[in-house]
Design goal:
The chain is of the alpha/beta class and 449 residues long. The protein has 19 helices and 16 strands. The protein has 3 domains: 124 residues, Rossmann fold (3-Layer(aba) Sandwich); 148 residues, P-loop containing nucleotide triphosphate hydrolases (Rossmann fold), CATH 3.40.50; 130 residues, Helicase, Ruva Protein, domain 3. The protein is 45% helix and 14% strand. The protein is globular and about 70 Å long. Bound molecules: adenosine-5'-triphosphate and magnesium ion. The site of adenosine-5'-triphosphate has 18 residues, from strand 7, helix 7 and helix 15.
């Protein structure tokens, strides 16, 4: 079914012939192509174009040092193919790290590009049709364990589908509560390793002196307290996926050993004498900017390059449009089903939910929905949405807690506000709150139970 509004695709290349060949192909598939021959034209086009869904950007035109352009707000949820005259793995990985989806070499394989873009066009048409049909309905699609029908989530699904089929290491980068662990499980489920274990290890929640024995296991008697042999996470995950949460909190000396295991594909248990072969896929997660973590000396650069073969950015909830209300409705449906009730959302509640900035992302939404569900009789309305959330953006250095709040509620809010003010850095948050990192993790986990 044809789209009513044109769907745009940018072709930015200094090569005239290439632009026109690719342009014709894109028009055949159903895109309206916009050709740019200089960097200036490209920037102007980006500033005015709407409904942009794909961009072919030639490295000749944008040049390596202009890869920052990939962070342009108009390109954030657009699939980008970087085009180069030769196969250049270093340029390719730099481009993918900056957010490109593909790296293609000239001459382009037109058959492959046609298949790929026709798929995308079909998906866009289906989405458009669905949105038209649903209108005010806020039902959500599910991909693996992730729910969401926004453009940002569709882009994530497309990338996960591609990366799941490979054995590449993946680094999930995103604010706290954006669903990094769900995304890791989804990648595992969709990979060939799905029948083998998915093992999650939280590098920040384990005392530094025990991290190595947790990862690699230990032999009996290898240190005081090691009264029996222990199989580490690497062995437990054999044939499957090892998910390393909060990778930036792994002690530096363990990072060296960990990198060695990834390169040699074998390891030794602590106190052991023989090498054990390792066959695991690594998915790591961080809620800090990894380059910043490298800069601060918390993450080794060589380890980062090894685990970030495929960096995946989780969109914050505030950038997911109508998914916010969709998820609110989804959590409400779950509570209704569990308790045999039929509570519903008022329009003004939906408005508040969609306007709030959600620093704690989906986790915060889920816990706020539970609270509102408990408070409301039949309709979740404005009075069930905490006041301080409404004024949140005007008061980001303060937390207003209404008299009558439970201690637990006040504590939860303080934790989320501090986490937000620390840009999701849990170590910093724990320090500021004067609790151990482990306590902070326990509290965050308890909000999900
Ligand atoms: N897209 C989604 N659909 C449904 N539920 C979601 C989605 N994203 C996150 N959640 C829920 O939100 C909560 C937080 O998700 P998750 O633990 O995966 O986030 P995270 O990014 O790993 O957080 P953290 O950085 O704090 O470890 C969980 O209860 C999860 O089930
Ligand atoms: Mg997590």
């Amino acid at each position: 079914m044809p789209q009513e509004a044109p769907v745009y695709c940018i072709i930015a290349d200094t090569d005239h012939q290439h632009c026109s060949a690719l342009g014709s192909l894109m028009e055949e598939i159903g895109f309206t192509s916009l050709t740019c021959r200089t960097m200036g034209e490209l920037k102007d086009t980006l500033n005015i174009v709407t409904n942009l869904e794909f961009a072919f950007l030639s490295l000749d035109l944008i040049e390596d040092d202009n890869l920052d352009l990939l962070k342009h707000p108009r390109l954030i949820d657009v699939d980008i193919a970087i085009i180069h005259t030769e196969d250049d793995p270093i340029a390719a990985s730099a481009a993918i790290k900056q957010g490109a989806t593909y790296f293609f070499c000239k001459p382009l394989n037109f058959e492959f590009v046609t298949d790929l873009l026709s798929d995308l066009m079909r998906e866009l048409n289906a989405l458009e049709e669905k949105q038209r049909a649903e209108h005010n309905n806020c039902s959500l699609d599910q991909f693996g364990l992730l729910r969401g029908s926004s453009k940002a989530m569709y882009k994530l699904y497309r990338t996960i589908r591609k990366v799941a089929a490979t054995d590449a290491s993946v680094l999930l980068i995103g604010e706290s509560g954006t669903g990094k662990e769900l995304a890791a499980q989804t990648i595992h489920q969709q990979s060939e390793r799905c029948d083998n274990p998915f093992i999650a290890m939280n590098c920040g929640a384990i005392p530094p002196e025990l991290v190595e024995s947790e990862l690699f296991g230990h032999e009996k008697g290898s240190f005081s307290g090691a009264d029996k042999k222990r199989i580490g996470y690497f062995e437990q995950a054999a044939g499957g996926t090892l998910f390393l949460d909060e990778i930036g909190e792994m002690p530096m000396d363990t990072q060296v050993k960990f990198l060695r295991v990834l390169e040699c594909r074998n390891f030794r248990r602590v106190g052991g004498e023989r090498n054990v072969a390792s066959d695991v896929r690594i998915i790591a997660a961080t809620n800090r900017d990894p380059l910043e973590a490298i800069h601060q000396g918390l993450l080794r650069k060589d380890l980062y390059f090894r685990i970030a073969q495929f960096p995946l950015h989780m969109p914050p909830l505030r950038d997911r449009g109508r998914d916010i209300v969709g998820l609110a409705q989804y959590f409400l449906n779950e509570f209704n089903e569990k308790n045999g009730t039929q509570k519903h959302l008022s329009d003004s509640y939906k408005k508040l939910v969609s306007e709030y900035s959600w620093p704690g992302n989906v986790r915060e939404l889920k816990s706020l929905m539970e609270r509102a569900y408990i408070l409301a009789n039949e309709t979740l309305d404005t009075e069930h949405f905490p006041n301080e959330h409404m004024d949140f953006e005007d008061n980001e250095d303060y937390l207003r807690v209404p008299v009558g709040s439970s201690l637990e509620d006040a504590e939860k809010k303080l934790i989320f506000v501090t986490l937000d003010a620390s840009d999701g850095d849990k170590k910093k948050t724990a320090d500021q709150l004067g609790v151990s990192l482990k306590t902070l993790y326990n509290k965050l986990n308890s909000y999900e139970e």
